[in-house]
Design a protein that fits this description.
Length: 669
Amino acid sequence: MVDKIKKEAFLSGSGGGKSGGGGDKPEEEDDTLQSKAQAKMVVAVCEGEIKGFVHNDTLKNVFLNDSRVKTLSDGFNFSDTDIEVSDLRKGENDQLVLSNFDDIEIEQSVDAKVTVQAGQISVTTTRNDLRSVRVRVGVAALYQVDEESGDITGTRVEYRIKIKDSVSTGNIFNAVFDITGKTRGPFEEERSFDLQGTGPWTITVKRETEDSDRTTLVNDLFFKAIIGEVGAKFKYPNTAVLGLKFNAEAFSSIPRVALEIDGLLIDVPENYNPASVDTEFTGAYRGTWNGELVKKFSNNPAWVFYDLLINDRYGCGDFMSANDIDKFSLYEIARYCDEAVDDGQGGKERRFVFNGHINNRGEAFDVLNSIAATFRGMLYYHQGTVVAVQDSPGASCKIFGPSNVIQDADNDGKLKSPPFTYEGTGLKTRKTVCLVSWNDPNDLYKTKVEYVEDRVGVDRYGHRELEIRAFGCTSQAQAQRLGRWNLLTNLTETETVAFKVAAEGFFLLPGEIIEIADPNREGGVASGFLKAATKTGDAVFSLDRNVVLFPGELYSLGVVVEDELEFSIVLTTAGTHSNLTVLDAVSKKVRKGAMWMLKRSDVERRQYRVIGAQEEDDGTVSVMAVLHNPSKYQEVDSATLIQKQRPSPVNTDTVPQVLPESIQVGFTN
């Protein structure tokens, strides 16, 4: 077949006999009409004020259809003549208008075919405050075929534009234009007119050239649109904006636009330097904080959370002020977020970072909790103040045992129920695999899923999935830590405890860690109140009852010192005692009536985290707490391992341009 085609190609046009035969091959002119239409848009980047672009070169921060305009290696994915980018306005209140993008345009689509037979087409502007108007007309194709020679050449179509205001009886503009040339494809052009008189205005397009009645003449005319230009100039105060202009030749439609920016300037402590936190970590905090705040860019989730609470434009600022927020508890949370942890690739990174955007409305409580979840936190309202708490390492602040909880008794004084009620989580609710969705900055911030599993849990309970969206997470290691924390919490903190207390319960807050000294649950545990105060430096404690120390056993005594439980080894010999001597003297004064807890060295401390406290009708407080695993934090932070994966095939680097003249076609055997 190939040989036959080659032979026919060789013989084409050859003649025979005396006359020589044959004929001229039809010729076609090159296209002379090319659309130069441009799309111009103003992108509302963010609520202002923002820090600005990540990279100094503007084009390196702009993505069109998921491709960076200018690559980080200084190559181009698009011709710089096809794209025009304005200076970024960062959202200041008194910012300047966008240069060359300060005109407001309102486009009204018409998209109607104009014929002599159907008559002229008129459109009225929707606004009466326009300064000028552009009329866009076009052809689907424009050419004619010589019926004898078959040659294809250009042709001409004439049209008239008339403009009339709402008051005058005549036209304020009336002129004939034409499109002359050749094109096999669509071609559009715009005519611009300054408007006079009183709006709204009526724009009319009339075809002057006779309609084509044969297939060899293609000159259909279309009234595409009118574009009105408003005379007002807008600064877009408190909104970061960027102007973009595209040539129609480069894009078949308006491209998707994405930008890489350092976002909002928010309130952060005056002794905090966010610019150096990625290398200094908690060293970015200088000295002691005096409570003052300054505006800087920060992606610390604790200060993003604070900004949403106090901002009166997009946050909760209309309903609360800075005085309603415990910012000092947020300061400690923020420092924990900025601590250095392993990034799974031999380096270090901050524990929690928020790189996200909120682009729709939501219930305030839901949005705030989604931000708080970024730093493993929650919020609650306490005594007129919004308080944020975090699941992070901490010391026990209170001890609860039979001595200081309320127990129900019958008329004979016999206990009807134990002091503490325990309940375990169902086996079916325990998850062993976590799928964490996060955004990969090395792959155009596309959503990726990090798979995290607890091998021991899988062997014991089977494959049970938990799906989580890591809002604002752009670190694979952070996503992995989040998944591991969820699994460890779900598999190891599997018990709740409930009990009742008197007035002491009013001072319990969600998130606080407490110790349960329940002799009914753990042998070798006792608790009570100190019978006398202890001065700084003392090592002898007077208990409210006798305790028995058995020979050969090692004991520790814990005492609540200023809302923190401190343990020390007991030096007192075996026997029955009400006064105990410890190895380490107290560093601060301990009040009379403070709680104490005695335990054998082989008995594990049972720590619980308070999740709720509710006042009952009888004046008591019902407390609910969940088992706390203090060893999980080390495992969460230290077990990160990132395996390199191949990125998805996207245009992350320069896309080579292929020119038509560089393509060669030939026959091969």
